[in-house]
C-alpha cells in the first residue's frame, strides 16, 4: 500500500498547526479503501515521527498509543497543545476585527472566516459572522 508522505509532526506546534497537519492525513486515509480504524491509528503513529510518538506514549500512559483510537490520539494531542484560554483569546481577536480603510470587503470577509474558524461559536456561527461583518464595516 502506498505510504503517506507527511513530514514529522512538530510537537512544539500550535493546536492550529496540528489541525493543519491532521487534515491531509485524514484526506489520505479517505483515499484508502478498506482502511479500518486500527490501521488508521497504526499509519498515524508511523507518520508522526519519533518525537510525537514519544509524546503520545507519555500522554497515553499506562495505555499504549496503538491501543487507542485515532480520534483519542488526536484529542490527546490537541488538548496538550491548545492553551486553556485559546477559545476566549480567539473570540476576542474576532470581535476586534474591523475592515481597513482600503481593504476590499471580500478580503475582510475572508479575514473574518479565517478567525471565526478558531472561535467554536457552534450554532451561533452565522449570527456572529453577520454581526461582526456589519460592525466591522461601519
TrEMBL record:
Organism for this UniProt entry: Echinostoma caproni
PANTHER family tied to this protein: ANK_REP_REGION DOMAIN-CONTAINING PROTEIN-RELATED (PTHR33198), CCHC-TYPE DOMAIN-CONTAINING PROTEIN (PTHR33198:SF19)
Designated name of the protein: Retrotransposon gag domain-containing protein
